């Protein structure tokens, strides 16, 4: 089942990042990275065509309270997002019906790829979900063509769960893989 989530008052800090709820003032930073080709494409969404489109999605982030903004400490810019989405995909809903968790999804500004920033953010969110919120599991998926995201899940200790066909926000289908990380509470 889906764990309850509300990140609106949560702040997580890593060596290089602050993870906190999205704010209206983040709009320019969001549009700056979300309009770039290749950022959304690997995650199943089109580059934002206008700042109004980014604003709509930013408002949704604020209302839904399940997505962190990633702030790069060095320049105080918002450079990415990390969401705790529903884990109740039909392919696994029975398996995870009686334990609580979420599926993580993330995207990072292309200017910051390859510095290990998303694994750093994901590890902080794992710690928050497992130690603070006592989730039982986290899921994470990626398209087969997305080797960058595969490396993130590997670096963060997830295990392969299932081959999947994902429905994208562009109304297409993509072959991919779903991974799981269980909370081993007694370790
Ligand atoms: C997936 C993503 C979040 C990875 O974040 P990151 O902080 O760059 O992750 P890492 O630095 O650990 O790099 C992961 C892999 O990306 C690859 N990579 C690194 N720099 C790269 C670059 N400039 N261009 C393309 N790939 C690159 C490398 O294979 C790296 O693995 P390695 O460390 O074993 O060499 C980021 O690439 C991204 O936002 N992609 C677009 C959105 C997306 O795919 N979201 C996930 C949907 S499932």
Structure description:
It is a single chain. The model has no long low-confidence stretch (mean pLDDT 96). Strand 7 (159-167) and strand 8 form a beta hairpin. The chain is globular. An eight-stranded mixed beta sheet has the order 1-2-3-4-5-6-8-7, sandwiched between helices. It has a single domain (11-182), classed as Aminopeptidase. The chain has helices at residues 27-34, 51-64, 117-132, 147-155; strands at residues 11-13, 17-21, 67-72, 77-85, 101-108, 137-143, 159-167, 173-182. The chain is built from four helices and eight strands; from the N terminus they run ββααβββαβαββ. The protein is of the alpha+beta class and 187 residues long. 33% of the residues are buried. Residues 39, 42-43, 106-108, 113-119, 142, 146-149, 151-152, 155 line the site of coenzyme A.
Short structural summary:
With 187 residues, the chain is of the alpha+beta class. Helices cover 25% and strands 30% of the residues. It has helices at residues 27-34, 51-64, 117-132, 147-155; strands at 11-13, 17-21, 67-72, 77-85, 101-108, 137-143, 159-167, 173-182.
Write the layout of secondary structure elements.
Layout: E1 11-13, E2 17-21, H1 27-34, H2 51-64, E3 67-72, E4 77-85, E5 101-108, H3 117-132, E6 137-143, H4 147-155, E7 159-167, E8 173-182
Parallel strand pairs: 5-6
Antiparallel strand pairs: 1-2, 2-3, 3-4, 4-5, 6-8, 7-8
Largest pleated sheet: 8 strands, mixed
Q: Specify the CATH architecture.
A: 3-Layer(aba) Sandwich
**Strand arrangement, major sheet:** 1-2-3-4-5-6-8-7
Q: Briefly note the structural class of the backbone.
A: alpha+beta
- Outline type: globular
Overall mean pLDDT score?
Answer: 96
Query: Could you name the CATH homologous superfamily?
Result: Gcn5-related N-acetyltransferase (GNAT)
Poorly predicted segments = none
What fold name goes in the CATH topology slot? Aminopeptidase
Continuous helix count = 4
Residues in β-strands, percent:
25-35%
Order of helices and strands: EEHHEEEHEHEE
